[in-house]
Amino acid sequence: MATSHESSGNSSRSRSMSDQQCQVMCYHGEIAPLREVKYNGPTYGKKFYGCSYWPRTCGYFKWADEVHEIRDMQMRLLEKDTEIAELEMEKGFLEDKIKRLKETKLKLNDVVEELSIENSEIREGLYAAKADKRVILGLALSWIFFLLYVLIK
Asked: SS3 of 30, please?
């Protein structure tokens, strides 16, 4: 590429507020200032990040729009990671809830079984009581018929 680059500030190491917010680092580990192509050519006016020690540079160079695209992708990735973490937490809560519901279901099944047994015992008792009433009624009727028979004779 046959274009020359100049710093957008007074000094090659100047840092503006937007540079600090971007935090693009050169290979020296320094914040790479946002610069702009000043010489005529196809890239005139295009913004780029370069080494903070320009012109004795470490070779770091990145077009600003590429950095922003990477940042957008990193931000989307971070959002997806956050969403995954939230869903995993929700999954854990739901698994705990399912476990508690299964335990409750087992307890309720035990209660239903106990009530079913109790219901069967009560029914048996009622059938026995009906049978006892029938026996008593049969005995009473047989005594009445016996008395009538004795009286008639």
From this structure: coil
Task: Please write down the HEC assignment for all residues of 98-128.
Answer: HHHHHHHHHHHHHHHHHHHHHHHHHHHHHHH
Q: CB within 8 A of 38, min separation 6: which ones?
A: 4, 5, 6, 44
Contacts of 147 (CB under 8 A, 6+ apart): none
pLDDT per residue as tens, the chain (153 positions): 333 333 444 334 344 434 344 478 888 888 888 888 888 889 899 888 888 887 777 888 888 888 778 777 888 889 999 999 999 999 999 999 999 999 999 999 999 999 999 999 999 988 888 888 888 888 899 999 888 888 887
DSSP codes joined into one string, 61-104 = EEEHHHHHHHHHHHHHHHHHHHHHHHHHHHHHHHHHHHHHHHHH
Residues 6+ apart with CB under 8 A from 140: none
Tell me the C-alpha to C-alpha distance, in Å, between residue 28 and each of 19, 32, 57, 59, 100: 16, 9, 9, 10, 56
DSSP structural state of residue 143: H
